[in-house]
Amino acid sequence: MAHSYTPGLKVLKKTIFKKERILPLKGDVLVKSGDQLTPDTIVASTNLPGNVQMLKVSNILNIDPKDVVEALQVKEGQEVKKGDIIAETSGIFGMFKSSVESPVDGTIESISQSTGRVVVREAPIPVEVDAYVSGVVDEVVENEGIVLKSNAAFIQGIFGIAGEKRGDLLLVSSGPGEELTADQITADMKGKILIGGSFLSLDAYKKALSVQVAGIVVGGFNYYDLKAVLGYNLGVAITGTEKLNTALIVTEGYGSIPMSEATFSLLKENDGKAASINGATQIRAGVIRPEIVIPIDAGNTDDDSSSKMPEGIQEGSIVRVIRSPNFGKIGKVISLPAELNKMESETMVRVAEINIDGKNILIPRANLEMVETE
Asked: CA-to-CA distance for 29 and 65, rounded, in angstroms?
């Protein structure tokens, strides 16, 4: 049978979830292999170099660079406080002195006699990496971090914004086709991850932000509302770094689209349980998908991820379209023609014949993503 190697969108009731938790720079790993972790456990820490403040002392004091050394009141490696005098002229008869003060707390990193510049390095910035999900340390990466392992239910969305959040799942919509409205979001939902149905309006998302909901999982969202949320057009940028209280994970696509039964049923089954979510998304090269991770009891948990799609998309596979004009729609693969087909752009590509809403459509295979379920 023909098949196509295409990334899969996972909806797994139980799997072995593994996640790297790595520092941006080498530092200290604070746990060891086999340790039990909670989401808040700090697994590694380091210090990023502080920001640099460059002072053109010769210009400020209006002296030659070679004369800066005589005016200096500090030396390399010395700690200074904001407002401390870095350099000072002798003035005329001890009067009319000019001086340069440190703009920040920090350390004198370098002094250049040739340019008359003094570099002040601000204090190091501490960085800590937490576990993100309850689990165990599966592997320690020396001086860098760990690989965490957890028995979990695992769901991937098609698009998301904001980074890692955690909280208890709370079922709000009664069914996958029901819109999650602003009046359903109340102050007591602070810190929760809300499960919606087919759609979330801009007003509803703003209400969630105002009451500090941790996250929302919903079928659809209006693409044009993203600019109102982010303040800029999204384009093809990687998401996940937005400074938002509430992460948003869209499971189906743009517009009002009922959440798939498999996704909604799995979320409903885990209503009230603790979960970790991440809205980070990248659709192009190096695909990153938003995710919902729900730790579960280890008993009777097998790794479902190895049994879903061993050979990629095949005839009969359920797929989701990840490009316009059918973005987010789900269909069934009817056939995988071997010959190349010409698209509207005049390019020749391999396609798949997909049945969507009762119609057979030829879609480039690169624009498809497998829906991986039990």
From this structure: 45
